[in-house]
Amino acid sequence: MKNKKFSWIISPDVQWDDKKELITTSLESGIDHVLDLKDIENIQKLGNISVISNDPNADIALVGINGEGDGTIPLSKDFSDSKDIELARNLKGEGKIVAAYVEIQNKDYEQLAVSIGKIVDYVILIAKDWTVIPLENIIADLQKDDVKIIAAARDVDEAKLAIETLEIGTDGILFKPTDFSTIKEMAKLIEDTSSNDYELKEATITNIKGVSSGDRVCIDTTSIMSVGEGMLIGSYSKAMFLVHSESLESEYVASRPFRVNAGPVQAYIMVPNNKTRYLSELETGDEVLVVNKEGKTRPVVVGRIKIEKRPLILVEAEYNGFKIKTLLQNAETIRLVTDKGEAVSVSEIKVGDKIKVFIDDNARHFGMAIDETIIEK
After folding, report:
1. Which end of the chain has fewer CB within 10 Å, C or N?
2. What range(s) does the 3-dehydroquinate synthase C-terminal domain occupy (predicted)?
């Protein structure tokens, strides 16, 4: 599964009013990191923004620049000298978050990027003419290190190449916005490439029965969900049902397209980066995954969690001899998704019906997929 990608911007060399508009548009598009060498105080007033700079007050310390310039990022003439690596070590020793900037001019600079990448939190790679091979080499050499790799990109095509290289791709991209449309295009690219696609299976319902009451969780998000969208939820961490959102009208209640009536507090839910969490752990500001009937996903933010005691229903299904179960609220407005992609109420579903589920090949430990035998029943 893909890790969540991100993008940073370099402040363009324009007047402050124009720069302010571009940075504000970036922030509104979900891009909240700005690399800037001279307007750090003004930028920090615009919102919750992290500034990457060689300024002592920067949120992320930047090494590999000469500190003189007009808002661009000039390469230090002495970057290959060990003093820059020593500076990175010293900054890390002071407890600072550190980003290093390396212009890939030849093979020596590839090795420099790898060396300093083992020290810093972020390594930013710049190339006048990107070729895939240097990027592949650096990604391969640093894939086991705790560092985020960022590639500078001139346009969306270069950004797409960088974040898809070696299937793993860079963790992020850095670009200089020149207009509002470029910002929106880059933000859309990051959103699309960060989403995981889950292969949904068709499981057959084998049993449905009412059980006593339990503490049920409703997830109210800050986003609108469409018909066909819901969340992957289940009693087993490696086998989840696609529980439909309340985006459909009912004769009993109005639609709540921002909500998924998810299940009892102990149930698992799929969240970004192919991880799971217990429903009881979620709170305002957390991210969860919305999944559609084709298995495509998008992250959304939890607006609130509502827990109430409600009667429950046990739903059991089987896929290729593997039995899976979940508990849901026993109400006609709670729906699963059929093999035809249609929402069906738990009050109408029958033994023999086919529904969409996700079955993971791996077990999970603390929400992360691991290669281990764990029995859930």
Report:
1. C
2. 203-377
Name the strand (E) or helix (H) holding 31: none
> Under a CB-based contact definition with an 8 Å cutoff, are residues 113 and 84 in contact?
no
Are 72 and 13 in contact by the 8 Å Cβ rule? The answer is yes
- The count of other CB atoms within 10 Å of the CB of residue 373 is 5
**Given 3.30.1330, 2.60.40, 2.30.30, 2.170.16, which CATH number is that of 201-370?**
2.170.16
Residues 6+ apart with CB under 8 A from 116: 63, 64, 84, 85, 88, 100, 102, 123
The full DSSP string for 97-163 is -EEEEEE--SHHHHHHHHHHHTTSSEEEEE-SS--HHHHHHHHHHHTTSS-EEEEE-SSHHHHHHHH
Element spanning 261, H or E: strand 259-264
How far is it, in rounded angstroms, from Cα 336 to Cα 96? Answer: 47
CATH 3.20.20.70 maps onto the chain at 6-194
Residue 98 in contact with residue 91, Cβ under 8 Å?
A: yes
Residues in the chain: 377
Each residue's pLDDT tens digit, 50-101: 999 989 999 999 987 543 333 344 444 444 455 778 888 899 999 999 999 8
Separation CA 127–CA 106 (nearest Å): 10
Instruction: Choose among 222, 270, 221: nearest CA to 243.
Output: 270
- Pinpoint the alpha helices (H) of 151-259: 156-164, 180-194
Taking the C-alpha atoms of residue 246 and residue 306, their distance in angstroms, rounded to an integer, is 14
Is it true that domain 6-194 has CATH number 3.40.50.720? no
